[in-house]
Amino acid sequence: MNMEMTPERIQMLVIDIDGTLLNPEGKITPLTRAAVQAARQAGKLVTLATARRYSNTAPVAIELGLDIPLILYDGALIVEHPPGGILHTNPLPASVGQQAVDLLASSGIQPVVHPAARVDQSAVDAMNRPIQGLAEEIWTGPADLDNLWVEAYFTAFPEQMRRMPYARLCEGHPDPLRVVAFADEETIMSVLPSVSTLDCSWNTTKRGNFGSAEIALMHSGCSKASGVKALAEHFGIPLEQVMALGDNNNDIEMLRAVGWGVAMGHAHDEVKAAARAITASNWEDGVALAIERYALGCPITTFSNSRSRTI
C-alpha cells in the first residue's frame, strides 16, 4: 500500500464502464460487484464515468445498487441517479457543433449529434403520479453516409433516432452535449488536423463498443476529468481523495486529475503513463483488486478463493 493514499483518504471511487468495470463479455463479475458493495459499506461514494448515455448506463448503476449522480457523455452531463434529474451540464456551443457536423459530413463521415438532454415527466406510475426521467435523442443526417458501424448504433436505439438535414443538426437548436462519429481508424485519424482547428475538446477511441474507431467532440475543456471535478465539488470532496479507474484514451485526463488514478492492465502505454498505479485486466477482476488494495486496504473475504491474484 502506498502510504500517500490510505483507505481513509479515498472518499470517492469513479469507475469507467466499458473495458474497466465490465469484463470482455460485457458482464460485472461477482468479485467486482462485491468489491463495489464493500466500498460503499465502508462509506466510500461510488459512481461511474462513461462515454455512454444515461439510458444504457442506468441498468449498470442499478445492478450495482448505486444511488448517486453518474458522469455521462464523457463528462458533458451529470445525471442524478436514480431520479434522472440533471445535476450538471457542459454542452458544446451549437455554432461549434455545426462546424463539426459540416466537417465530418464533408469528409464522408456520418455525424451523430447528442442534443441537449431534458427532464421528462410525461410518464406516470401506478397511482397516476408523474415520474421524472431523462429524455435522450440521437440526431443524424440522411442515410447516404451511413456505414455498418453507425447502422449498428442506430439499431441499438431506434426509438431515440431522428434524421434531419445536416445544416439543421445543430444550428437553431439548444447547445448539444457533443458530436460523435463512427468509422475506421484511418478515416478518423484523417480528420484530426481539421478537428484540431475547432474550438472544442475531442477524444478518439481505436475500437469502441460498435467495432469501429470513434471520435467525440465536446465543449472546450470538457472531459471525464471536468465531470469528476464538478461531482467532487458537489459532495465537498477534494480531488486528492478521489480514486478513478479507466482503460482508454478518454480516461487519461481523469486519471491524471484525481489523487489516485488506476489504469487497467490491458490499457495501452499512454493510459498507463497517466496513472499512479496499474491493476490487472478486466478479465482478471482488475477493478475489484484495485478497490481492495487502494480503497479498502484489505481483501474481500466473501471471495477468498481469489486472493492468490496480485496487482
What would your notes on this structure say?
The chain is an alpha/beta fold. It has helices at 17-21, 30-41, 58-64, 94-106, 148-156, 185-190, 192-195, 224-235, 252-257, 269-274, 286-296, and strands at 12-15, 45-48, 70-72, 77-79, 86-89, 112-114, 118-124, 130-135, 138-140, 161-163, 178-183, 201-205, 213-218, 242-246, 260-263, 277-278. The chain has a six-stranded mixed sheet with strand order 10-9-6-11-13-12. Strand 15 (260-263), helix 10 (269-274) and strand 16 form a beta-alpha-beta unit. Helix 2 (30-41) runs parallel beside helix 11 (286-296). It starts with 11 loop residues before the first strand and ends in a 15-residue tail after the last helix. The relative contact order is 0.18. Mean pLDDT is 91; it is low at 302-311.
Helices and strands in order:
Elements: E1 12-15, H1 17-21, H2 30-41, E2 45-48, H3 58-64, E3 70-72, E4 77-79, E5 86-89, H4 94-106, E6 112-114, E7 118-124, E8 130-135, E9 138-140, H5 148-156, E10 161-163, E11 178-183, H6 185-190, H7 192-195, E12 201-205, E13 213-218, H8 224-235, E14 242-246, H9 252-257, E15 260-263, H10 269-274, E16 277-278, H11 286-296
Parallel strand pairs: 1-2, 1-14, 9-10, 14-15, 15-16
Antiparallel strand pairs: 3-4, 4-5, 6-9, 6-11, 7-8, 11-13, 12-13
